[in-house]
Amino acid sequence: MSAQIIDGRACARTLKQSLEADVARLRAEGLGIGLATVVVGDEYSSTAYERRLRRLADELGVPYSPRELPADVGQDELLACIGELNAEPSVSGILILRPLPSHVDESVVFRAIDPCKDVEAVHPDNAGLLALGVPRFVPSTAASCFHLLDTWLDSVGEDRAEFYHRCLIVVVGRSNNVGKPAISLGYERQATVSSVDEWADRTTGIGRHTRWADVLIVAAGKAGLIKAEHVGENAVVIDVGINGATGRDGKVRMIGDVDYDSVASRARALTPVPGGVGPVTDVWLLRNTVTAARLLAGQRIEQALPALPVARTAQVRTLQEKS
Ligand SMILES: NC(=O)C1=CN([C@@H]2O[C@H](COP(=O)(O)OP(=O)(O)OC[C@H]3O[C@@H](n4cnc5c(N)ncnc54)[C@H](OP(=O)(O)O)[C@@H]3O)[C@@H](O)[C@H]2O)C=CC1
Ligand SMILES: Nc1nc(=O)c2c([nH]1)NC[C@@H]1CN(c3ccc(C(=O)N[C@@H](CCC(=O)O)C(=O)O)cc3)C=[N+]21
């Protein structure tokens, strides 16, 4: 079997059209919007993302303030930078690119962000709201994974609710900004969710968990970690990983955490890298920046959140009814 390819670029194009309309509506209401990013050092995946955000903000005419700090920046200097962005009225969304250098305490840094400008929901207030199922911001990477899944389910005519209720979602990687939010969004869809980290790989191996997945979301940051032997034949595989791999010609190209060719020969559907989760993530972050602009203008969360794609009304049958 050869997997269906889930096209993130096509999905992002559609989402971008509604984002353009959201930004225009905001302007028509006389509300300001601006995005600030903070990159510490020059890690491959951070700079790749920052470039994309810069370009998207430019295309949308959204004011963009990039801050670049050296890898040896002191934590206090980083906190001072966040303080300035918190106080800057023209900035509605703040994104601190990860990974941060090891001498910086990420939790202290994230706690310093104004929760209403925290477009990635890394401040404990926002992470807590997400975990409770009442998010202020839905973190962009996890949101993108599920947006791709929802869109793909619609395209193959599967009922979303029925699919998720019967579904085992296995999430590889449990970082605070990708894996854990993906786990929360899986719960929200009433799926069965399990989580795999590096210890599982080092001890029993991850295959004994991942092979059972109906949906496998991989966010480990390890190039080619997932191979055909790790996936079931009916699996839908969402590859979040962004890794720089140097080829024989010395050029660096982008690859995911999934060994694309071997998994494509086995799985039911697969997101490629590039062209999968990545292109949706930056659009979603700008959507969250629109939400932030509305919150900062005093609107309530329900008024501020952009409309999500509506799930088709489903008559969900229970197991007994099915048999
Ligand atoms: N496409 C996109 O839009 C985005 C892509 N990314 C990419 O996704 C990847 C993950 O990002 P992020 O979550 O921030 O990374 P982190 O490094 O913060 O977290 C990685 C997680 O993966 C786990 N892990 C590492 N190695 C293994 C292994 N061999 N088996 C199982 N689990 C493992 C770690 O386990 P433990 O907890 O035990 O350390 C940890 O929980 C990166 O490549 C990043 O660039 C990130 C954001 C957006
Ligand atoms: N706080 C934080 N949040 C993040 O979301 C975050 C981060 N830190 N640190 C770095 C990683 C990496 N990341 C990318 C997202 C999209 C592309 C992307 O869209 N890539 C295009 C590449 C196109 C190309 O260059 O060929 C694609 O996948 O098709 C890349 C990288 C977000 N990250």
From TrEMBL:
Record keywords, A-Z: Amino-acid biosynthesis, Histidine biosynthesis, Hydrolase, Methionine biosynthesis, Multifunctional enzyme, NADP, One-carbon metabolism, Oxidoreductase, Purine biosynthesis
CDD domains found in the cross-reference section: NAD_bind_m-THF_DH_Cyclohyd
UniProt keyword annotation of Cytoplasm present: no
InterPro entries, sorted: Aminoacid_DH-like_N_sf, NAD(P)-bd_dom_sf, THF_DH/CycHdrlase, THF_DH/CycHdrlase_cat_dom, THF_DH/CycHdrlase_NAD-bd_dom
Catalytic reaction equation(s): (6R)-5,10-methenyltetrahydrofolate + H2O = (6R)-10-formyltetrahydrofolate + H(+); (6R)-5,10-methylene-5,6,7,8-tetrahydrofolate + NADP(+) = (6R)-5,10-methenyltetrahydrofolate + NADPH
Signal peptide: none
Recorded family membership: Belongs to the tetrahydrofolate dehydrogenase/cyclohydrolase family.
Stored Gene3D superfamilies: Leucine Dehydrogenase, chain A, domain 1, NAD(P)-binding Rossmann-like Domain
Designated gene of the protein: folD
Highest rank taxon of the organism: Bacteria
Pathway(s) per entry: One-carbon metabolism; tetrahydrofolate interconversion
Record-annotated Tetrahydrofolate dehydrogenase/cyclohydrolase catalytic domain positions: 6-120
Job of this protein: Catalyzes the oxidation of 5,10-methylenetetrahydrofolate to 5,10-methenyltetrahydrofolate and then the hydrolysis of 5,10-methenyltetrahydrofolate to 10-formyltetrahydrofolate.
Species in which this protein is naturally found: Prauserella salsuginis
Keyword Amino-acid biosynthesis: yes
E.C. designation(s): 1.5.1.5, 3.5.4.9
Binding site for NADP(+): G173, R174, S175, I242
Assembly: Homodimer.
Domain Tetrahydrofolate dehydrogenase/cyclohydrolase NAD(P)-binding: 168-294
Name used for this protein in its record: Bifunctional protein FolD
